[in-house]
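Entry, Tuesday afternoon. Goal for today is a structural model of the target with zinc ion bound, before we commit to ordering more compound. Inputs were pasted exactly as handed over by J.K., no edits. I checked the ligand SMILES twice against the vendor sheet because last time a stereocentre got dropped in transcription.
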Amino acid sequence: MTSVSRLFQLSGTCNNYPWGKRGHQSLAAQLCKKTPGTDFAINDDEYYSELWFGDYPDFPARDLETGQTLAELLKSNEEKLLGSYAVEKFGNNLPFLPKILSIAKALPLQIHPNKSLAAKLHEKDPEKFSDSNHKPEIAVALSRFELFAGWRELSQISPMFNIPSLRRFLPEESNTWNEKTLRNVVRGILKADEQTIQNIEKDLRQQSLEDIQKLGYPSSTFELIQRLQSQYSATDPGLLIAILCMNFFVLEPGEAIFIPTDGVHCYLSGDIVECMARSNNMLSGGLCPVADRDNVDLFSETLKIDSSTQADNLKLPAKPSKDGASGYTMVYQPPIGEFDLIRIDMPAGKDELIWNHKGPTVAIAISGEGVVLGDGKELAVKPGFIFFIAAATNTMIRADTALQIFAAVLR
Ligand SMILES: [Zn+2]
């Protein structure tokens, strides 16, 4: 048996959820196709939503040379590839799951349950909830990225509920809103019948854009309502939660958002790098087919409503990283232990000596060409090429043309 290398190229797996971009418009598909030696081809009638390149059993990454799954390789070489720190803390899997998403229409309004709820759900229904882990996640924009995430200030939501059709969701005596008020409002709207939803939407259309903007709602509010109605149904209650209660963001390339466990979010459009704790659990409250909606009480009770779900705290700025010797490396550090996400932007002709981390690294090149050197090997770097780098491995990257790489790391 030959011993496994500390640096090797991976192939990823692209999936086809109907919210993905079509055919060649999908960056996820474009990047997936560039991995040499795979038979992945882009069909212009098909939707391509996500490129996964972790060790999760769904859509697994494989060693490009041998075809072996990354999960198998990690299990049989855990100390060498993951390092003792990662093994001790997270077992013989990657602690994180990286993806590229290409989003053409809204994903479900969703939360990813905390560890204790995930464990219960997994035990009860292992088919739907396929692991017992939590799933905090970060998303970095590669193009203009629109999303709803977290809650607007309560003082910005409450005036809207003076509209007659919305007032019914408030308790009689309530004047000031608190966390419980918002939770009850969400529960009430998600349980409302179709006629009620239609009445609210009719009332909303009668508001002037000027008045709505005065309350801090985006100038695109009416356009967003129309767009979401056309993507799902006019009577999808999740639409009203997003529009009335959530922050709307437009991120430019390089800007990032952190979604904590139980944090509400709904991605609308754009190409992004996403990285999360190794889990695939989701509860959905709407903006999906009716059959896919989860129990409203469970969804509403689980929602996180605190300072971590306020707009300012969701944005995650990139900071200069100590990893790169030449200053081409930035880091997104979410407040969790499972991973940091690194962004390397190198001009042509430059070298960057990077990391020697105590845990594993998975990196993907987004643009440019060059080479990566480590463990006595030199591998070509091109768009869509994905690499695994073992714990405690010195790595050098050389850019032949301007190069952009994202890497999930455990430090
Ligand atoms: Zn999510």
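The pocket of zinc ion is lined by residues 110, 112, 137, 265 (CB under 6 Å).
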